[in-house]
Specification:
CATH topology of the largest domain: Serine Threonine Protein Phosphatase 5, Tetratricopeptide repeat
Helix content: over 70%
Number of helices: 8
Largest sheet: none
Number of domains: 2
Strand content: under 5%
CATH superfamily of the largest domain: Tetratricopeptide repeat domain
Distance between the termini: 49 Å
Low-confidence stretches: none
CATH architecture of the largest domain: Alpha Horseshoe
Shape: elongated
Structural class: mainly alpha
Oligomer: single chain
Order of helices and strands: HHHHHHHH
Length: 147
């Protein structure tokens, strides 16, 4: 980062996000974005905007721009996935997290995926998960350790 002041605000914002204080992080990232709008700053700013102000559409656009600029940075996928979770789009969040893991190991993404508690595929994929047959065979398979 060329601007040391923007770097300071960015570090402060990341610490605040990691301690779940997104309001403080939002203020830090807004200041950093005014000084040097790097993809990392924009990505974190997007998450904070979605969390604190509910600006989901704007946040998704900002995060996608960051991904376009740095497609191999897993932090952008982490933030976009979190935004999708805030928007109650769980499947999109899972897909985004998994895509991010293709570019490298990110413990925060792994933590988010574990917190979601991913489920196994239904026994009969051509039937709905809630179908009585799927539920019954799922219970039997689990009971006998077949899955």
């Amino acid at each position: 980062m060329a601007n040391p002041e923007a770097e300071k605000f960015c570090e402060e914002g990341i610490k605040a996000v990691n301690s779940r204080n997104t309001l403080v992080a939002l203020l830090a990232f807004e200041k950093a974005a005014q000084l040097a709008p790097t993809p990392v700053i924009c990505s974190y700013l997007a998450y904070c905007l979605a969390k604190e102000r509910g600006a989901i559409k704007k946040a998704v656009i900002l995060c996608n721009e960051a991904i376009f600029a740095e497609p191999r940075n897993t932090v952008h996928y982490l933030n976009l996935g979190r935004i999708y979770l805030l928007a109650k789009k769980k499947q999109q969040a899972i897909d985004t997290f998994r895509k991010g893991l293709k570019f490298g190991k990110n413990q925060q993404i792994v933590k988010e995926l574990n917190a979601l508690g991913l489920r196994k595929e239904p026994v009969f994929s051509f039937l709905a998960r809630e179908n009585v047959v799927n539920r019954l065979f799922g219970i039997l398979y689990k009971k006998f350790g077949l899955r």
